[in-house]
Design brief:
By secondary structure, this protein is mainly beta. It is built from two helices and 13 strands. The strands form four sheets. It has a five-stranded mixed beta sheet. It has a four-stranded antiparallel beta sheet with strand order 5-7-11-9, with helices on one face. Strands 1-4 form a two-stranded antiparallel sheet. It starts with a strand and ends in a 13-residue tail after the last strand. The relative contact order is 0.23.
């Protein structure tokens, strides 16, 4: 970093009539490494049928300034607890991924919608990404980001061989 200072005023007097007074200094600055995870959803809302299997793709990224960071991924505990109680099942292929700085990776979560939905119901799911580097080394603590998506579950109206009406 190079800094230059020029005197333009002395005791409230214009210094332009005086010989130029200036000085400069150079020094090195080190920016400390930091973790900065990102998260994006490919679909902010998805519509599925009750009892069906489906997938949700989440894009995780690393905007930190290190060579790479290990990003812990998943569904927030509160969101998972609520969805489990309703009857959803959720699985992820991994619990953490290593991502180079400036890069992204797509992770596909597999889900099953609950059965017994009447007409249609809406649910939210909250995904997270957390920088391992920030948890280990940053004084401010773990850097965690969240993203929510809406799941619209429609009643399963497939005909299972039962006569639904007589004419």
């Amino acid at each position: 970093i190079e800094v230059e200072a020029v005197v333009t005023e002395i005791n409230d007097q214009d210094a332009s009539a005086l010989p130029e007074g200036s000085d400069s200094a150079s020094f090195n600055a080190h920016i400390m490494e930091y973790g900065s995870p990102t998260i994006e959803l490919i679909d902010s809302e998805i519509t599925v049928t009750a009892g069906s299997d489906f997938e949700m793709s989440v894009i995780y990224g690393n905007r930190g300034n290190g060579l790479f960071d290990k990003i812990h991924i998943g569904v927030s505990d509160f969101s998972r607890d609520v969805l489990d109680d309703i009857g959803f099942t959720i699985s992820a292929p991994v619990q953490a991924i290593e991502i180079e700085s400036g890069d992204t990776k797509v992770i596909v979560f597999k889900l099953r919608a609950p059965k017994g939905v009447n007409d249609e119901e809406y649910f939210t799911i909250e995904f997270y990404g957390e920088s391992d580097f920030s948890c280990r080394y940053e004084l401010s603590g773990c850097n965690r980001v969240y993203m929510m998506s809406t799941i619209r579950v429609l009643e399963d109206t497939t005909d299972e061989g039962v006569v639904s009406s007589l004419g």
